Amino acid sequence: MNELKFLYLVNCLKVGEAYWKIGITNHTNPLNESKYFLECYRKELIGSVAANQILDAISINIKGLLDDCLNEGFSIKEPSDGISYDIPLVVVEEIFDFWFDLYKKGDLFDKVLELSKVRQRINLSNPFISKGLKGFTAEWVQKLEILYAFRPNSVKISSKKEPMWSDN
Fold first, then answer.
1. Quick count: other Cβ atoms within 10 Å of Cβ 71?
2. How much is the pTM?
3. Quick check: is 86 in a domain?
């Protein structure tokens, strides 16, 4: 049975740690889901199957964004739960809205989600690869890259390792 659920985006504060949380609930007011939820920014009533698929797509997108930032040497705090406050609300909302709106377009959602999964294994923004992309794929890769474009203001962490024979 595909019962209706609320897909939500809230901010949370738990033991002095602030973070964003995207989840699914039966509660009309997602803030009733947890005493740590402070404010609700998105709340969409949809079927449970759709909610889970959209949540999975958002999670893949956020994980990819975080991986890109970390691979480029940016420092991002990882909360014990949810999404780091180092990612601004506007970025999290854009990702939420993108996948929610795309889900309404049926097969297009599945195709773009697969592109997002491919992006985890292959750098689709590499000039050699992006020049080879045409039509639908090129158009949607560009749209996906916008979702992955955020970089924090934090200073990059030096990834330079000291040689093991150093006298330090």
1. 9
2. 0.85
3. yes
